[in-house]
Specification:
Elements: E1 3-7, H1 12-23, E2 28-32, H2 43-48, E3 56-59, E4 62-65, H3 67-78, H4 89-119, H5 126-146, H6 160-172, H7 181-193, H8 195-213
Parallel strand pairs: 1-2
Antiparallel strand pairs: 1-3, 3-4
Helix pairs in contact: 1-3, 1-6, 1-8, 4-5, 4-6, 5-7, 6-8
This protein binds glutathione (GSH).
Glutathione binds at residues 8, 11, 13, 40, 53-55, 66-67.
Length: 233
Amino acid sequence: MVLKLYYLEDGPPSLSCRQVLEALQVPYEKVDVSFYNGDHMTEEYGKKNPQKEIPVLEDDGFFLSESVAIMQYICDKYKPDSPLYPRDPKARAIVNQRLMFNLSSYYADILNYAILPVYFDYKRTPEGLKRVHRVLDVFDTYLSRLGTKYAAADHLTIADFPLINSTMCLEVIGFDFSQYKNVTKWYNDFKKTHPELWSITEEGTKIIKFCIDNPPDLSHLNHPIHPARKATK
Ligand SMILES: N[C@@H](CCC(=O)N[C@@H](CS)C(=O)NCC(=O)O)C(=O)O
């Protein structure tokens, strides 16, 4: 049975999973989950992922959520010898460290500042801005200390995808991060070197841009956490 990825078109975690599948040339079927329609909030979806978050991977009756776990599983099960997720303990530890850094800090702070206000009734705050600068500074330091072209090695690894998709969230709102020279170089190099993988990120970018220009009204979702904002256009 072919792998199924339940994904959100403009969701950074979904984009990263798609990039891993694409980079490894693992065949899979995409199942578009509509955030707008609340497809992920149904009881049915909750059976696949009790967190009611997107993405979810389905592998012959096995359901897996959390994009990092999904990316690691795809590599381990389908291309265990790929340099995308190195087997050497130290090399793998650096990849894992970057993945955790992204999930717990980099993406978390960028999401709160840049993206949530596009979809929900949140304001960008000076404190949120400080947090974004702090994580950019940390990531820039990681890049400069390791001195590699990619985030965790001298070659592409699964750590690059989520970090690219988080950084894209800044670019899409017009946030100038050019002072972070290593981040900027790494980001631009990725676009140039991997146009086919970048095009997946770009699909998400287009939708986020559309939502910035046409703020969505998600009040019909009665979201359990996020306060809805009425459309202004
Ligand atoms: N840690 C999760 C985060 C997944 C996540 O939060 N996805 C968002 C879309 S990008 C979502 O499904 N949110 C559900 C909601 O806010 O109702 C992962 O990396 O897969």
